[in-house]
Amino acid sequence: MTSSPISSIEDINAALQNHNPFALPPYVGSQEVWGKEFPDVTTLNAHASDAVFQAINQIRTGQYQRTSIAITAESGTGKTHIISRIRHQLQTEGGALFIYATEFSDLNNIKQGFQRTLGDSLGKIGSQGVTQWQELASAIANQAVKSIHPHARTLLSKDLVQKLSRNELSKNRTLVNQLTEGFRKTKPNLKNPDIIRAILWTLADSEALYAVKWLSGDELAQYKANELCLPSINGQSFDVIQQILDLISDYYQLVICFDELESIEINNAGFTKSQVVAGLVKELFENLSKGVILTVMMPAVWINKIKQLPAGVHSKVSAHGNPIDLKYMDGNSIVELVALWLTEFYSARNLVPPHRLYPFTETQLRDLSSEEKPPVRKVLQWCRDNCKPIIDSGDPHIVPKEHPVEQAFKKEFTQEISNYLDDNYLLADAILFGFQTLVNKTIERVKIEQITEKVKQRGGKDDYLNFKIIGKEDGKNISIGVAVLQYASGRALGAGLKRLIDYETFGITRGCLIRSKSKDKNISSHLYKTYIEPMIVQGGEFAELKEEEIRPLLAIRSVHKKREIDYGFTEEEILNFITEKGNVYQLGASNTLLKEILSDPSYQVPEGILESNLEIQDVISYSESPELADFSELAVVVNSI
To answer: What are phi and psi of 12, to 5 degrees?
Structure first.
C-alpha cells in the first residue's frame, strides 16, 4: 500500500490563506449536538461519557430503573463536547432516544418549556433515518398489530413513513384511528389516547409538523384539529410529559440532558435557571419509569446554586454519586485534537500536507499544556489566531479575520428556529433585546427613552403584553404596548388582543400585535371584530412576524446570552458589532420588524388574516372510533404497507 504524494506547499498555503480551518467559533452548541459532530478526541474525558453509557447498559440489563448524573467543568473544557459525543454514539448504536434541553423562555413555567423541548428533540433524526417521534410511532404501530397477530411482520420505520406520506389524508385518518384503537386495547389504563393518535400522525410527513406542535402543548387551528381527529388543545401539563416519557421507556432507553445552566436569569420566586431546572430534574427523576438524566454545569453552579437547595433536590440531580469532573487537556490530547481538525480540513480539499499538524509543530502544541491547563476552547482559539502558512520568504501571512462577534453571530444565525416560531416568550425576548440596543436613539421619528416589561399599573409583568416602548414621537409622549401572540386561536389569543386595546389599564397610547400570517394563524370573525378592528381604528399596528426578520434578532440575542461563559465577549463588543454591521445583517435600527413596530400606524386591516368559511368536520375521539370486533381489518391495512 502506497501513501498519497504530498501536495505542493503552494496549494496548501493557498488553502490556508483562503480559509482558516479554525475560523468557526470554538463553541459546541445544539447544532453540533444534533448535526455534524465537532472533531472529537474520544479518549479526552472518556471517564465521563463512559459513565453515562455504563448507566444506560445497567438500566438495559435491569440492574436499576433510573439514575441521574451531574458533570461539572469550567467554561470551555468540553461539557457540550461530551454531550455531543453521547448523542452521536447513541444515534450510531440505536436503541435509545435523546432529549436535549437548553432553552426555557419562561422560567416561571418551566414545564411548558420542557414540553416544547421534548417535542423539538424528538423531532430530530434518530438512529433509523427518521425522526425520533417516528421511531416511537413505529413501535406503537407494530405493537397494535402484534398484540392480535403475534406473527405479523415487523414494519420498518422508513417503510411506514414512506407509505403514510404517500397516502391521502382520509386514508391516513382511518389507519391512525384504527391503530390508536388497537393500541388502546393493549393498554387499558392509558390516560390519554389522543397522545397516541398524535404520535402516530408523525408518520405522515405532511401532518408531522402539526402533530408535534400539538404534542408540544401548542394549540392547533380548529380545521387542522378536525382533520387529525384531535382536540385543538392538548394542554401543557406534567401528565402529558410523563405519559410521553413512559411510552418511550416501553420501547427504548431514554437519555434526558440539561445544558447551559449558567444563566443569571431568575424567575419570579428569585430562583436562578439552574435551580429551577434542578427542581424539574427532581420531579422527572421521581416520576421517570426508566432512563438517565444528565445535567452539565460549571463547578460554581453546583456548589453555589444546586447544593444550596434542600438535599431532597440536589441529591436527585446527581443520584449516581458525586458530580463527575472533566479534566483539562494535556499535550497528547492537544496534539490529537488539532490533528483531527486539520485532517478534516485537508481531506475536504483533497490535499496532503507535509505532516499532519502543518502549519504547526508538535512542540508548539505541547508547549500550550506546559504553560497552563488550557480548556478545549482556548486551544482552538490559539490555533485560530496562529494558523499562518509557512512562506519560503519567512514572512508569515496573516489570515484576515472577521470580528469575533460576527463569527459567533453567523453560527447562531444558522441554527434551526422553525420549532421556536410559536414560542411567544422567546420571540418577545429577542425583539425586546433589539429595542434595548436602540435606547436613546431616534428611529421612525420615535426617540426611544425606555423599554420595560413592567406593563401593569403596579409595575408587574403580564403573560400576554410583553413589553412597552416609552419615548417621544414628534415631541409627544408615546407608549407602545407590544404583544407577540402566536396562539392558533381561542381564549389565550383573545386575552392577548384584549390588552392591546386596553390603554388605561396598561398605560399605552397604542398597541402593536406581532403575529405570523398563515392558514393556521387565521383569526376568527369574532376576534377580528371585537379586537383587531378596534385596535386598528385606535391607531394600533399589526406587524407581521416574518422568519427572515426575526432570525437575526434571535441570533444576536443568543450571542448576548452566551457572551461571557461561551464566547468571552463583553456587552460593549456586541453593541459595537450591531452598530457597525447592523445594515448588513438586519440588526438594530436596520431591522425591518423593529422599524415596523415604531412606524406610523397605517389604519388599515391587513389582508389574509380572517378565518375562511371552512367546512368543519366532526372531531372523532377515540371513544367514537369504529369498534373493531375483529382486528383482522387492522392487520390487513397495516400489513399492506
So the answer is: -65, -45
CB-based burial of residue 184 (10 Å sphere; 0-12 exposed, 13-18 middle, 19+ buried)? middle
Helices within 414-484 (DSSP H only) = 424-436
Cβ(289)–Cβ(255) below 8 Å: no
CA dihedral 396, 400, 403, 404 (to 10 degrees): -50
DSSP state string for 312-369: HHHHHHTTTSSPEEPPPP-HHHHHHHHHHHHHHHHHHTT---SSTTTTS-HHHHHHHH
In this predicted structure, what is the pLDDT of residue 519? 79
Helix/strand/coil for 411: helix
Provide, rounded to the nearest whole percent, the portion of the chain with pLDDT above 90. 64
Please give the torsion angle defined by the CA atoms of residues 456, 457, 460 and 463, in that order, rounded to the nearest 10 degrees. -20
Integer angstrom CA distances of residue 175 from 156, 162, 204, 263, 629: 16, 14, 11, 46, 16
Give the contacts of 256 (CB within 8 A, at least 6 positions apart). 99, 101, 284, 291, 292, 293, 294
Amino acid occupying residue 524: S
Query: Are 230 and 220 in contact, with CB atoms under 8 Å apart?
Result: yes
Residue 164 has what pLDDT? 94
Tell me the three cell numbers of residue 641.
Answer: 404497507
Is residue 394's pLDDT more than 50? no
Sign of CA dihedral 301, 304, 305, 309: positive
What does the pLDDT look like over 194-230, one tens digit per residue?
Answer: 999 999 999 999 999 999 999 999 888 888 999 999 9
